Amino acid sequence: xxxxxxxxxxxxxxxxxxxxxxxxxxxxxxxxxxxxxxxxxxxxxxxxxxxxxxxxxxxxxxxxxxxxxxxxxxxxxxxxxxxxxxxxxxxxxxxxxxxxxxxxxxxxxxxxxxxxxxxxxxxxxxxxxxxxxxxxxxxxxxxxxxxxxxxxxxxxxxxxxxxxxxxxxxxxxxxxxxxxxxxxxxxxxxxxxxxxxxxxxxxxxxxxxxxxxxxxxxxxxxxxxxxxxxxxxxxxxxxxxxxxxxxxxxxxxxxxxxxxxxxxxxxxxxxxxxxxxxxxxxxxxxxxxxxxxxxxxxxxxxxxxxxxxxxxxxxxxxxxxxxxxxxxxxxxx
Length: 333
Hints:
Elements: E1 2-8, H1 15-22, E2 31-37, H2 43-49, E3 53-57, H3 62-72, E4 77-80, E5 85-87, H4 91-96, E6 104-112, H5 118-134, E7 148-151, H6 152-157, H7 171-181, E8 185-196, H8 202-222, H9 225-228, H10 235-253, H11 259-278, H12 281-290, H13 298-322
Parallel strand pairs: 1-2, 1-4, 2-3, 6-8
Antiparallel strand pairs: 4-7, 5-8, 6-7
Helix pairs in contact: 8-13, 10-11, 10-13
């Protein structure tokens, strides 16, 4: 049996498209569970209209909502998606197929979008770059819950998603890192697509990247090896964060030194930022082939992305250094 779990907070507007898509699958799920996370809109009424299993809880975050759905699920395979996603007609079939191999513990699918704005199209190119990185790998260590699958018994034994993460951030990454470190096989499933509304504005994009960086600081404290490498994150991204910080520090210091040293620091700062932009050449070439118009915004967004992630990661580390002794509920696994 297959159970699909959808956590939702004030998603009454987007939930219908998600549920309609799930009810039109080539391989219909045996159970669809909507977990309302303390919504104040008509989310529960919408779910009830579609005749799916609707659960409610006080607002506790998506990690807790997904765990609640997993506990109530009847299927031996759990598929997760989000209320603002509309799975393609063969999504369930594709996500479940790898579990025929008893060595597979989890699966990861893909995002797509129908949006026409340049910022969401840039976001899509970021995801495509990640999928290129994972393609062909026999196993991965990074699974996002917009399109994720796990064996229910393993999911529950592992303690589920860590509710220490109060918002949708990187709690899904932490869980998949936890399983991968214990030798469980997770696989990428090309073509297991859900359609999504990516960040439509620059402000939303920058805020999301900042909070990813902030909470990634907590994840890397728990899984330090993933700070060095994981199957999803391009290595160049870490160098870009470093170049952004280095350039900023040099330019700031140029106003605090003697004129001759100031000129050297200023030149070095601008060179660092220039190297940051040039480091995206391979990414730009992919964009040129796939969606050339996105090149008009790609360098500036790449620059801002490095700053947002880096600042979030810095502040997150400062926050969690002060929060000594933090424990993950998954530690009991």
